[in-house]
Design a protein that fits this description.
The complex is a heterodimer of chains A (240) and B (419). Chain A has helices at residues 53-60, 83-93, 109-119, 121-127, 133-143, 160-172, 190-207, 230-233, and strands at 11-20, 30-38, 42-46, 68-73, 76-77, 94-97, 178-182, 210-215, 226-229. With 240 residues, chain A is an alpha/beta fold. Chain A has one domain (40-65, 80-233): 3-Layer(aba) Sandwich (Rossmann fold), CATH 3.40.50. Chain A has a 5-stranded parallel β-sheet, sandwiched between helices. The longest helix of chain B is centred in the last third of the chain and has 44 residues, at 272-315. Chain B has 2 domains: 2-46 and 284-413, no CATH class; 55-270, no CATH class. In chain B, α11 crosses α13 and α12 (330-371) packs antiparallel against α13. Chain B is built from 13 helices and 14 strands. Chain B has helices at 7-13, 15-47, 63-70, 83-90, 119-122, 149-155, 203-209, 226-231, 251-260, 272-315, 317-325, 330-371, 382-413, and strands at 55-59, 81-82, 95-107, 110-115, 124-125, 129-130, 133-136, 144-147, 162-163, 182-188, 198-202, 238-239, 241-246, 267-270. Helices cover 52% and strands 15% of the residues of chain B. The chains are: A alpha/beta (240), B alpha+beta (419).
């Protein structure tokens, strides 16, 4: 698998002189001079609620565009392409795991995991390079510790911990270059958190994906290659 | 698109609401098609009341009136025409056959028609079908009568029954021609036309029962017994109208003009098809109202679907956000919603068609026996298919409303819901 790397600094994600506010007249919520993530890196991004975490993730995912500055993901400047292309880019390049409600309740585990491949041809190709889509989905689910007999059960039948593992399997399917996990462990108990994170690490390594893990829980930070506090890089509000 | 594969599990997830929505659309579609079927059947049965007759000729009146009383036995003739004029026109060179009709008497609410035995040979209905005898044969005696199938079944008559004809056309009459009873010589097969509700006797019989009734009521001292009447030399003075078949179709208009310009008395000749058309356009208003009502019912069914989908929209915001985070573009969300509306509409239409035929199969004999209307169980006509096409397009258009809303929300909500 080849990854497009930003030729300037060899990073997968590069944020440069970014400024963003939700409304034209509203306050600036995010102002980041420089922030980058290297290929294959596992970064822990800490931030209290309301610190602009979700906004930053929306920007990285191309859901919204910055008022000023550049965001480059996997060699693609997100400001340079239109909304439809950003949607497509996100589908091809980023796997998301959210805090909760990650799964479509009426689909089975396997169907939920295979969901991104409905929307991204490149992830479908990568997922099915050596396996059928269903076999690859099942393999990931088993790797993440879900029992064999649950593969075709409805997602709504699972516990929250199991649901988060299914969400992780889905984010990893088709090996997207970037995995963004937004508070994926906050609904889990302490033991389950560490198990979840180490499983996520193993699979990211196997898939060759870079991981951006966002949480307010400092106790997990030591497990990562690098830990970043959002309040250290976000200068919005400091001047005022 | 692969997003459509989600349509069925998504609908199944809300199966109760979806099923009710489909059912309401199915019922409305079945009603629409049913009304259409009954409408066309009524029209077909109406226009097949008389066929094979080229002209109906009677004393001068309106074409619709002439048709109403001569064929449908509705209302009374304002004037009769003389026997001489009938014979004169019947001998016209282009006339192939003619059947005189004399109306004005009734039997327990059913019209009594005086005619000749040619009537059973030349009168045609539907696809030029001839009248068939269920039992018995045409009248060959002065006091013989042939009854239609409805008369026979309603009054319990069979060949050999004795009947008394009443003067005038009311169902209750105080002036009965009791002195001259008739014997049923034959019962006709069911036709679905006014023939079923008619008692047929010979022209001379009409004359016979009116001997001694010249003033309109029985006159003392002028009573004639049935036996005496049989011996009298009877010939009709006047008839109500007559049916004509021509030798050559080109002769129709020539003959029609000749009759309309007849010098001896004012007469009218009408083409049955034209008069039927005119009559139908009068009663067609009710038919249009029926169609309008059933279209409204379909609209209500579709609005029900809109309500059901719109109600589900809020609880599905999370589902949409999940799909978006998995890479679904707003276009996919739009497709998913409109796909569901299309599936619901199409299923509703299919179920509605099934329902229609089921109901038709079950009720066809009842409708025929109770209302004398034969509703044929045939395939869907191009017009039916056009109607269904319109329902389908309307369903898809209505489905576009929640689809557009979902599309807009998916843009505003982004990937996560702020819960």
């Amino acid at each position: 698998m080849t990854q497009n790397v930003d030729p300037d600094n060899g990073s997968l994600v590069a944020v440069d002189s970014l400024r963003f506010s939700w409304n034209a007249d509203g306050p600036t919520v995010l102002e980041i001079d420089q922030f980058s993530i290297a290929v294959g890196e596992r970064v822990f991004l800490r931030g209290a609620s309301g610190s602009g975490k979700t906004t930053l993730l929306s920007l990285l995912g191309g859901v919204v565009v910055p008022d000023a500055g550049h965001i480059t993901v996997s060699g693609q400047s997100l400001g340079a392409i239109g909304r439809g292309e950003r949607d497509r880019f996100r589908a091809d390049n980023i796997g998301f795991i959210f805090q909760m409600f990650n799964l479509v309740p009426y689909l089975s585990l396997v169907q939920n995991v295979a969901l991104p491949c409905r929307f991204s041809a490149s992830r479908y190709q990568r997922a099915t390079a050596s396996n059928s889509l269903e076999a690859e989905s099942e393999r990931l689910l088993l790797q993440l510790g879900l029992p064999q007999d649950s593969m075709h059960r409805k997602a709504s039948d699972l516990s929250v911990g199991q649901q988060q593992r299914v969400a992780a399997a889905r984010a990893l399917l088709g090996s997207p270059p970037l995995i963004i996990a937004d508070e994926p462990t906050s609904a889990l108990d302490a033991d389950a958190r560490e198990t979840f994170v180490s499983l996520l690490f193993d699979e990211c390594e196997r898939a060759g994906s870079t991981l951006l893990f966002v949480s307010h829980d400092r106790s997990l930070a030591t497990l990562f290659d690098r830990s970043v506090d959002l309040s250290d890089i976000n200068t919005a509000g400091e001047v005022a | 698109m692969k997003i459509l594969a989600l349509t069925f599990p998504s609908l199944w997830n809300r199966k109760f609401t979806v099923l009710l929505t489909i059912l309401s659309i199915a019922l409305s579609v079945a009603l629409l098609l049913g009304v259409e079927k009954i409408r066309t059947s009524a029209r077909a049965s109406f226009s097949s009341t008389i066929s094979g007759t080229d002209l109906i000729i009677g004393a001068r009146t309106g074409p619709v009136q002439l048709l109403l009383y001569s064929v449908f036995r509705i209302g009374n003739a304002t004037n009769n025409m003389t026997w001489e004029s009938y014979q004169d026109i019947a001998s016209h060179k282009s006339v192939k056959w003619s059947v005189p009709l004399s109306l004005g008497d009734s039997h327990r609410g059913y019209a009594v028609l005086g005619t000749t035995s040619d009537y059973f040979e030349h009168y045609r209905y539907g696809r030029k079908q001839q009248l068939e005898f269920a039992s018995g044969e045409p009248f060959d005696d002065l006091f013989h009568a042939v009854v239609g199938s409805e008369v026979a079944s309603a009054l319990g008559y069979q060949t050999g029954s004795e009947i008394v004809v009443a003067h005038g056309t009311g169902s209750v009459s105080f002036a009965n021609h009791k002195d001259k009873p008739f014997v049923v010589s034959g019962v006709l097969e069911r036709t679905g036309t006014p023939v079923d509700r008619t008692v047929h006797v010979s022209l001379n019989a009409i004359e016979a029962i009116h001997i001694g009734w010249e003033s309109g009521a029985p006159q003392a001292g002028k009573q004639v017994s049935a036996e005496d009447a049989r011996k009298m030399e009877l010939h009709p003075e006047a008839i109500t109208a007559f049916l004509v078949g021509v030798k050559n179709k080109i002769g129709i208009f020539q003959l029609q003009r000749a009759v309309n310009e007849y010098r001896e008395e004012p007469l009218l000749a009408v083409l049955p098809g034209v008069a039927l058309q005119e009559l139908w356009s009068l009663i067609g208003v009710a038919e249009k109202a029926l169609v309008a009502v059933s279209i409204c019912v379909v609209l209500i069914g579709l609005v029900g679907m809109l309500t059901a989908i719109l109600t589900s929209l809020n609880e599905r915001r999370r589902e949409i956000a999940i799909l978006r985070s998995c890479g679904a573009r707003p276009g996919h969300v739009f497709t998913l919603f409109i796909g569901e509306a299309v599936v619901v509409t199409v299923t509703g239409i299919a179920l509605g068609i099934g329902l229609l035929y089921l109901v038709l199969l079950a009720t066809q004999p009842i409708i025929e026996s109770k209302f004398g209307l034969y509703v044929g169980i045939s395939g869907l006509t191009p017009y039916d298919l056009t109607l269904l096409g319109i329902v389908f397009v309307a369903g898809a258009l209505i489905g576009a409303v929640p689809a557009i809303l979902a599309y807009r929300r998916s843009l505003a909500d982004g990937l996560t819901l702020r819960i």
